[in-house]
Amino acid sequence: MAKGNKPGHRRFGNIRKRASGRYQASYIGPTGRRHFAPQTFERKSEAERWLSLVEAQVFSGDWTDPDRAKVRLGDYAAKWIEQRPNLRPRTVELYRWLLKKHIAPHLGGVQLGKLSTAMIRDWRTTLLEAGVSASMTAKAYRLLRAVLMTAVVEDRVLTRNPCQVRGAGTEHAAERPTLTVAQVFELAERVGARPVGNVRKLDSDEYRLRYRVKDGVMRRFPQTFATRTQAERVLWKLAEDGHADVVRDDRLRAFILLAAFASLRWGEVTALRRSDIDTVKRTVRVRAAYVERANGEMILGPTKSRAGLRTVSIPAAIVPDLVAHLEKYVRPEAESLVFTGLKGGPLRRSGFNKITRWSHVVEALGVPTLHFHDLRHTGNSLAADMGVSLKTLMTRMGHDNERAALRYQHRSDRADRVIADGLDALVQAERQAADDEEGEGSAGALVPVA
């Protein structure tokens, strides 16, 4: 019998009539505390029906403490991010940014128990109407859904997740560009070529361009520019057309080739050590990854997933480039970084973009929207074209689908070699085509010539 009830009265809960004539329902919960209905009822039967529903929740184990549901979403989500296990540093930064930028300003002050699907739908519409991209809105929605799912399943603060907007968490990202084999080698060549010249800001706030021609003489471009970017674009165009001299630095050539033909992530390729590369067996061992935080801190940690720990076969065509790089740029110690910044530390994205002038390079290549990660996408696409099994491809890429990739990894060594040999055949075919075209007087594709 529930506490406070008299013989012959209700076995669960209590109903009393208020001075206003409305009925108030309350009950003693499993925690021993009395809880009141969030509203009064016009009829006693309505109060009885509400108590019956609560009793059924208590009996089935679905009851949640309504007092705990009074915590505000912003506070709960912030603690969720702080306590969520196994989140990578960059992921933590992204979640905190999404919460601060897109979730908290609209829903942060709302109590968990008062969130509704209609409220979530209105929030999502507000973001889209404010100009937030569909992709970013989907990311924010997925974070909110994950936070509230914890409130339902683990903390039992809510009985159901109000994030029920169909399709709201789905991203329809544009297809990323992929390169041909010839373009990969051309990119590897271009990232080390930089035009010789300088851009100077004048007292008029305009920019003057000077560049070096082939005979070593510096010349001034006849017109000035409103921005430095415009001047730099013209400088690169002069080099592209052969009017400006260029200097070449091959320290990032192997970096590009390895990222593409071994399908490596940025953090994986930048964390490689001398001992990870076996030029005889033609393999690269991936055992760690660098993460660069928003404050510039570099963190060496585990790979993105357990399947990221892998050994990848590489085509023979890029081995000479790796050997040359190891001899020229890498210290002899086994744990020396293979690719570094100009000062010898881990290579940063900002340093990479500055050294290569990436935007100018990919524009000259004819693929202006190319991101570095698209090199991995290119390698994955080329590998998939070899016709190997999905499990083999997943292992090479370092993807973990319910641990299936790890389970089949020991079986995929031979098939992984097939991928590398297939990539090697593509390179050799490009070379042969280039030789044939050169024999006919054509410039040919930009690939290494033995």
Please characterize this protein's 3D structure.
The protein has about 450 residues and is of the alpha+beta class. It folds into 4 domains: about 15-65, no CATH class; about 70-155, Tyrosine recombinase, N-terminal domain (DNA polymerase, domain 1); about 195-250, no CATH class; about 255-440, hpI Integrase, Chain A. It is built from 16 helices and 13 strands. A hairpin with a 5-residue loop joins strand 2 (about 25-30) and strand 3. Helix 3 (about 90-105) packs across helix 5 (about 135-155). Belongs to the 'phage' integrase family.
Keywords:
single chain, 450 residues, alpha+beta, DNA polymerase, domain 1, 4 domains, three-stranded antiparallel β-sheet, 16 helices, 13 strands, 44% helix, 11% strand, disordered C terminus
Strand and helix layout:
Elements: E1 14-17, E2 23-28, E3 34-36, H1 44-60, H2 73-83, H3 89-107, H4 117-129, H5 134-153, H6 181-190, E4 193-195, E5 197-201, E6 207-212, E7 218-220, H7 228-240, E8 246-248, H8 253-261, H9 266-270, E9 277-278, E10 283-286, E11 289-292, E12 298-301, E13 310-313, H10 319-329, H11 349-356, H12 358-365, H13 373-384, H14 390-397, H15 404-408, H16 413-439
Antiparallel strand pairs: 1-2, 2-3, 4-8, 5-6, 6-7, 9-10, 10-13, 11-12
Helix pairs in contact: 2-3, 2-5, 3-5, 6-8, 8-13, 11-12
